[in-house]
Design brief:
With 498 residues, this protein is α/β, with parallel strands linked by helices. The protein has 2 domains: 244 residues, 3-Layer(aba) Sandwich (Carbamate kinase); 158 residues, VC0802-like (2-Layer Sandwich). It is built from 19 helices and 14 strands. The protein has an 8-stranded mixed sheet with strand order 3-4-2-1-5-7-8-6, sandwiched between helices. Strand 13 and strand 14 form a beta hairpin. Helix 6 runs antiparallel to helix 7. It is globular. The N and C termini lie far apart (60 Å).
Length: 498
């Protein structure tokens, strides 16, 4: 039985209980492969002793967060979007019922034991109907002019998102117990908690009475806290929870289990036989990957582990014997080499030409302010005497709003936009003479026209802006020339791209 927040608010995790342990995170796609997770990660052929001294943070099963919030790729409305935009409770209420039905249907495929299935379904219905009741009360309250729904929407969003992680964590605990493992459901979601806590207080409270030497905690990826994880980190909150648990408990290692290896390129582009798993790299490289939208880990989560000297391992769920990729702050290879070729297949160029900015200090700030206001992230940029060019990733609707506002603020400016792609060559140490010239030559030989190029002084990445149609061709050419060591002739690479 876990202690209440009032009993444990000022208590800290006992380091004697957590010496030499590891903290793991399992992503949603992997979680959906229940048998693989159970056999390859959680249990397998582990002995009694090997089962413990581990903490698992789990995401929702694949697709459920999309149903609860909105589809991350298509933007299709989930329960949250329907609730935020609906005048009645029918649309969002029906969608919430649909989530419950799908969760219970999934439970039937997972549990063979009828008693466990009943427990799992009862848990789902308690969370779903409790949430429904709360949202209906809020809807009624906001029908009075004194209360505004928009002020509570972020809380609603977090409450709905928490259902997914609670479902998968509780199910995993039940499955482990059925196999004789002393698993504990470590619920950080704040369900029916009478008071708010900071993230550290929430973690300390839940872990205060857990002895990981004899118990296996299965932790919700969402943690309810006064800071508001979703407002700060968006849907990357589970990695922040995972990172903070690793830091607070003094883990010797943090491990993220994904459905793929961290490799030298996307195998769907360069071919499965051509890619090479990355054995070791640095947090610097992880940051560059995040900038390209290929997150090994959320950058804020990486920051905490980097500060505490905790190495991160990216492991493949389906190849448990493979050592995976170790990321730490001590990897500074003597030999300069390219590790990864990746990029953003669809980005937008926003070019602002304004003769009045010549010689004006801080002339860029107005453009930056607009991008910040509309939450449009810049991947890379160019700046000269009279032109500011940002290469950004965001939906076209947001881009148009930004361009319209920049135009209103600077009526004398000429603003141009177009679709582009960004390709990046990344490595912990790519400070080798002539690398930039070599990369440009490879692209030229492959028939790739450059829109822009950058070789930052930190020497961990090169960036090339190309036309959207040349993205795959550029990835293939650079991977062959810089990692595989093969010549990338124009005719040969065109055949490969086809």
């Amino acid at each position: 039985m876990l202690s209440s927040p009032q009993e444990t608010k000022s208590r800290k995790i006992n380091p004697a209980k957590t010496d030499g342990h590891s903290v793991h995170k399992i992503g949603g796609t992997s979680m959906s492969k229940v048998d693989a997770v159970m056999n390859n990660i959680l249990v397998g052929d582990r002995s009694e002793q090997d089962l413990y001294n581990r903490i698992f943070v789990v995401s929702a099963y694949g697709g459920f967060t999309d149903m609860l919030l909105e589809n991350k790729k298509t933007g299709e409305a989930g329960v949250y979007q329907l609730y935020a935009g609906s005048e009645t409770d029918w649309a969002w209420g029906d969608a919430l019922s649909g989530v419950a039905e799908k969760m219970c249907a999934l439970n039937e495929t997972i549990f063979r034991d009828l008693a466990d299935l009943k427990l799992a379904n009862a848990f789902v219905m308690e969370r779903i109907e409790g949430t429904r009741s709360c949202l209906m009360d809020l809807h009624r309250l906001c029908s009075f002019g004194h209360f505004k729904l928009e002020k509570h929407l972020l809380t609603v969003r977090e409450m709905l998102s928490a259902i997914g992680e609670a479902h998968s964590a509780h199910n995993t605990m039940l499955l482990l117990r059925s196999k004789g493992v002393n698993a504990v459901f470590a619920d950080l979601s704040g369900w029916r908690e009478p008071e708010a806590s900071t993230l550290d207080e929430r973690i300390n409270s839940v872990f205060a009475n857990i002895d990981i030497t004899i118990q296996l905690p299965i932790v919700t990826g969402y943690a309810q806290c006064s800071e508001g994880l979703m407002s700060l980190y968006g849907r990357g909150y589970s990695e922040v929870t995972f990172s903070r648990i690793a830091c607070l408990t003094g883990a010797r290692e943090a491990i993220i289990h994904k459905e793929f290896h961290l490799s030298s390129a996307d195998p769907r582009i360069v071919g499965v036989d051509a890619v090479r798993p990355i054995g070791r790299t640095s947090y610097d490289v992880a940051d560059q990957l995040s900038n390209m939208g290929m997150e090994a880990i959320h950058p804020r989560a990486a920051k905490g582990m980097r500060k505490h000297g905790i190495p991160l391992r990216i492991a493949n769920t389906f190849e448990p014997e493979h050592p995976g990729t170790v990321i730490d702050d001590h990897w500074d290879p003597d030999d300069s080499r390219v590790e990864i070729v990746t990029g953003v297949p669809t980005a937008f160029e926003i070019e602002v030409f304004n003769q009045d900015m010549v010689g004006v200090p801080g002339a860029e700030e107005e453009v930056l302010g607009v991008l910040k206001r509309y939450k449009v992230p810049t991947v890379t940029k160019n700046l000269n005497a009279n032109t500011i060019t940002h290469y950004v990733t965001a939906p076209l609707k947001q881009i148009r709003r930004c361009v319209e506002e920049i135009g209103r603020n600077q009526p004398e400016a000429t603003i141009k936009t177009r679709k582009v792609a960004i390709v990046s060559v990344i490595g912990a140490n790519i400070n080798q003479p002539g690398l930039f010239a070599r990369a440009v030559s490879i692209l030229d030989q492959a028939g790739v026209d450059l829109v822009a190029s950058h070789f930052p002084s930190r020497r961990v990445d090169l960036q090339f802006v190309v036309t959207e149609s040349d993205f795959n061709k550029a990835i293939i050419a650079l991977h062959r020339g810089l990692i595989e060591g093969k010549k990338s002739g124009k005719q040969d690479d065109t055949a490969i791209a086809a």
